[in-house]
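Help! Submission page says 'invalid entity' but I think these are all valid:
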Amino acid sequence: MCFLSKCYLYFPERFYIYSVNIHFLYLRFFMRMSKLVGRRIKEDPRDAQIISHKFIIRGGYARPVSTGIYSLLPLGKNIAKKIEDIIREEMNAIDGQEVLMPVVLPRELWEESGRYESVGGELLRFKDRNGKDMLLGMTHEEAVCHLIRTEINSYKQLPVMVYQIQTKYRDEARPRAGLIRVREFTMKDAYSFHESQECLEKYYEKAHQSYENIFRRLGMNNVVSIKSDSGMMGGAVSHEFMAISEAGEDTIFMSPCGKYKANREVATAAWKFFSEPSKELEKVYTPDKTTIEEVAAFLGVKPEHTGKAVFYVDNNENLIFVMIRGDFEVNETKLRNYLKTPQLNFANDEQIRKAGSVPGYASPVGLGKNKIRIVVDKSVAESSNLVAGANEEHYHFKNFNLSRDLPGAEIIEIATVRAGDPCPITGAPLEEKRGIEIGNIFQLGTKYSEKMNCNYLDNNGKSKPIIMGCYGIGVGRNLASVIEQSHDEYGPIWPMSIAPYHVHICALNIKEENVKSVSEKLYADMKAAGIEVLYDDRGEKAGFMFNDADLIGVPLRVIISPKTLETNSVEFSTRGNKDKQIISLASIIETIEGRIKDELEKYK
RNA sequence: CGGGAUGUAGCGCAGCCUGGUUAGCGCGUUUGACUGGGGGUCAAAAGGUCGAGAGUUCGAAUCUCUCCAUCCCGACCA
């Protein structure tokens, strides 16, 4: 057993040799329930919608302090610490070095990168007592560039990776879902520095593997890595790690075989559109029919045979006319990326009229291309004889054909994928899933290092910006995601690797002297053996204790009662499994050590 | 930022429409007794600026106004 084995510490300068049980080197958790801070609650909190939120509150893992701001109680903190330690091990294994950067940062640093201006209200800005502008760090690219540019000067020092496990603050517009979307949270953020793109890419692969290790070791059984939109982080390549769960905020499309998987923001499909010989353009009367559904029903066609007009305004007040087949929705992320604009909003009726169009009956036909930018989705370009607006109240056109009626239009793919659309690789119907983003990795390149003078001298003595990658994991979000993926109706079922304790002792009828003395001794012996043990010494009714134990979700359970003591034994069971074994008192510690070892082995 | 809802004991809620002694209920908490293998029973007790402020009224948890907070949907989201 690892924590019983001896280890020798050697201090050469003094020639002292110590022999200690290895468990003295690691913090181990143990507690008696009568003293455990954090109560269990029988009823679901009113505002909780998802399982993890309910169990986190009901089990006494965390308490809300303000919107999206939580205190962790001992149970939650124990788990968080184990999650952090697993992350540390994996980061150290890919040559990471732990550092700690400040939560509070000065404005100047963020002005260097340009993000003081470009990031919106989620960056919390404030003044210190001298009136100096400060902010709360929501991510640490600026801080790490500040650190590295003074410490790293030479190619000989590269590559290098530093990481921290630190509080982040993002002034989210709408925190929700318990620990999944919060304002203040703990995050591991790592930053790697390289001479070349090749070196970054090689390291990026290692980080990807490291992340897969981490999520497996946390006991997450359904995590996928998908290529993602880099958003305002910039950079060429990025991946999101998604814990598949109904509670997730992101929508993912996957082919059944798993060959293709993508966030809805960037997902595409091998759509096939129908085309037939063009018919004559024909104006038809469609009184008060302004939506696709109404027009299609009125004319007796399917939405697939219509074209939909959507107007957007970018941040410079430019109007953009988008046309897409009636049964599709515009994917704004794709459109934004294509237009290279940071912001898009729906245009209002007044703006649409000003451009010479008619809301509800808008059409690209007759709209001057010089007056307004017209972008057309492939679904319209490759279909024929569609119903489209006529730019006139109560009228639509039948048999709109893009190549004939609007030649030279900008044609791109901006449709949102739908469940069942054909996979772009295999052609199989795509499945739609929800996911919680529990980690992400980015190839940043020189986006920050260039602006922030984070340079090194190459082997020719030339100064160059360092090529960077960054890698994040949210600790609390992972805790919640494990609950989402591992629970039953009574509470979480913690994997041994991150369980708040390894064993839960339930003493039944503790008023009986025999039960009390044996339980106390077992608790003491387990502590001495380095087993992480939670001991329910409260003398509650059996059912009450078991329900609490289920909410705490400790993997192994030992029950001591007058009945079991008649045969000098205890009952032993596993969380999530009603089967119980009778084990003699003499061998219970050995049995448990074996089980803990076997379980921990699965998460190595 | 837009739409909707809610604030009453530690937690979950009733009371408000139709103003009127001392503001209730369940869970939890404390004390005692019984009980003892899936949230047990009985008895007693503690616990409230009814979100805040202003107003109407002889009288406001209840009606009016303002503000604050929280939650849901949307917008937003390195």
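Support: the input was valid. A stray whitespace character was the problem, and the output above is from the cleaned input. The two ends of chain A are 15 Å apart (CA to CA).
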